[in-house]
Amino acid sequence: MAPGTGKRVALFATCINDTMFPSTPKAVVAVLERLGCSVEFPTDQTCCGQMLTNTGYFKQALPTVKTYVKAFEQYDYIVGPSGSCVGAVRHQHPMLARHAGDEGLAKASEDVITRTYDFTEFLVDVLGVTDVGAYFPHRVTYHPTCHSVRVAKVGDRPMRLLEAVRGIDLRPLPYSDQCCGFGGTFSVKNPDVSVAMGADKAHHVMETGAEYLVTGDNACLMHIGGLLHRMNAGIRTIHLAEILAHTDAEVPA
Amino acid sequence: MTATIPRLTPAPPPGTFLGMPAFPRAAKEALENQQLRKNLRHVTQTIRAKRSTRAEEVENWEDLRTAGEQIKNRVGRHLDQYLLQAEKAMTEAGITVHWARDADEANRIIVEIARAKDTREIVKIKSMVTQEIDLNEALEEAGIAAWETDLAELIVQLGHDRPSHILVPAIHRNRSEVREIFREEMGLWGVPAPEDLSDDPPDLAGAARAHLREKFLRAKVAVSGGNFIVAETGSLVIVESEGNGRMCLTLPQTLISVVGIEKLVPTFEDLEVFLRLLPRSSTAERMNPYTSIWTGVTPGDGPQDLHVVLLDNGRTKVLADPVGREALRCIRCSACMNVCPVYERVGGHAYGSVYPGPIGAILTPMLRGLDSDVDKSLPFASTLCGACNDVCPVKIPISDILVHLRNKVVEKKTAKHPTVESTIFGGVGWVMAKGWHLALVEQFAGLAGKAMKKQSYIGPIPLPVAIAWTRSRDIPVPPEQSFRKWWAAREEEGK
Predict the structure, then answer these.
(1) CB contact under 8 A, A150 and B389
(2) Per-residue pLDDT tens digits for B25-58
(3) Of A17, A223, B329, B351, which has the fewest Cβ atoms less than 10 A away?
(4) Which residue among B390, B433, B472 sits closest to A227, beta carbon to beta carbon?
(5) Which chain B residue lies closest to A150 (C-alpha atoms)?
(6) How far apart are CA A13 and CA B490, in angstroms?
(7) How far apart are CA B261 and CA B312, in angstroms?
(8) A99: domain range?
(9) pLDDT digits (tens, 9 = 90+) for A173-184
């Protein structure tokens, strides 16, 4: 029996994936369904709100807390392909509610966040799998994004999932614990520092000889990928879920 | 014609920290300084690795951090009582205790003491708090020369410069620059550097030793900060690594210690926690080289006239902020700036603040208030990567406080009328409030994607905000179909 059999999962696509990188949530759907889960996409959902929260707009971020609770409260498993967005929901939503003096919302949020998982956490901890049947015959380097490690605390789960991918050639990334410099609105409020940090990250990625840079957060990838593309570095960026969704059935001829 | 008034000490660079450009502009200038980038990369990466080793080898490191956090929280909770207890204990031990509300009061007290001693100069131990109150310039105006005796502070002072790190203040200088500074300046203010001074560190240290020794032996008054005051015993603690502190603490007849009111620890036993946390977190040493603890006057031994100036200067205001007060736990170890990827690239000067790096980005705007452009920009001088939170020996949640202060900045800026930014974010807030709002915006993104479908990335876009991203980074063309639309189509098919 597939490990996900009988598990009803709500997909938290996140606004950036929904709008800019739909192939990532599609990959999550593919992997979860392959593992036997039944996936639903509550259409009321929007965003974790951290773009607003982390720029100081607490009041404007509050509706995202309400929307999140309303969209997801009836589910046992809420899964999002972003350590940063999942981290923001878990770490900031109750704070935002309390800041607005809404204790009821804070309580509701505290309840729903206990059922909110990063994609890698759900696979490893809830479904108990690291080998999801993926095949990806490429040179790949993994950057552990800051919020996935330090806020969502996904630990080594992404690496364990990647190591189980057949055909993959994983290259260690030097200085992988250093921030890429994206930082949400930091990237446009302090563009020079952001790019200086991103340039170092891009160089470290190039040193590995990888064809693909993988992370669990498309926002960071958009920043590093934007630099790599400007430099014509010939390195593609890919979300972890898309590697995990890849099977030998899909390998192009 | 105006006659220039001769200075007693090397003049610092013109202007004040508050007159500096806000962080983004100052950072841009710093990024172009190759020497600075090279020094910072080397030093921060070295010390970062060492700190990590020194922390990991302590089996109960996390327990120690928790203890440090809790002891300092207790101090904050009962600060009124501990301060009175410390004042009583210090007074009984023969120390004269002064209270200073702000920098001006503290400086006035110190100038008065020095004047009463009829001295024209004082020697100083490296101290952050005296920089916070700009004591050297207050003394200069009063006709008293203040000499920095910490090697790096001496380099900064002789170089007419400002410190750029709280622990290694001359981190932005290389040794050939130091040689030039010593050769050009030492002779103007005391014992000159040898003619044939090389840029070998032992030679440079030798020149500094000779230059400083004259001042140590002559000075009648010394000024120090204080790493800790033990409330129950009234003991002062100074942690240093060059021995210059020992000289200042023992040779002059009069010692004035300026200490922030948050520097208390309740008992002598509590000190143990911090004397383990601090050296490992700051210089990555197992044990601090020179730890001086003194409890009042000992007749015939060391300074016979001891003064302590307890300084508020905004600390009570910080304590009143339930989120921000956690920053008062700071023991000035500098681990947060050593690990900070932003600090590593721009250095300390870009922060326009005595306290740079992550701790400076939260502490300075809280101490000074969010009035100037510099202070409004500091809470945004971080990617919120969180590396600082993990290394802080007293577990200050720096990222959370940064976000809290960003909210305060926004509230302050939008108090009277909306700004361009707040209008944009009001729009973002509307989009993210409902699923159908986001779906509507995705329609437009999809149309843009359709129009540009021949390319996968967009280059520079000469529009405000967009150019900040696209000047150096390409941006992907949005897809024609959002995930939401794809899902709806899939559901439709399934039916």
Answers:
(1) yes
(2) 999 999 999 988 999 999 999 999 999 999 999 9
(3) B329
(4) B472
(5) B386
(6) 15
(7) 6
(8) 8-126
(9) 999 999 999 999
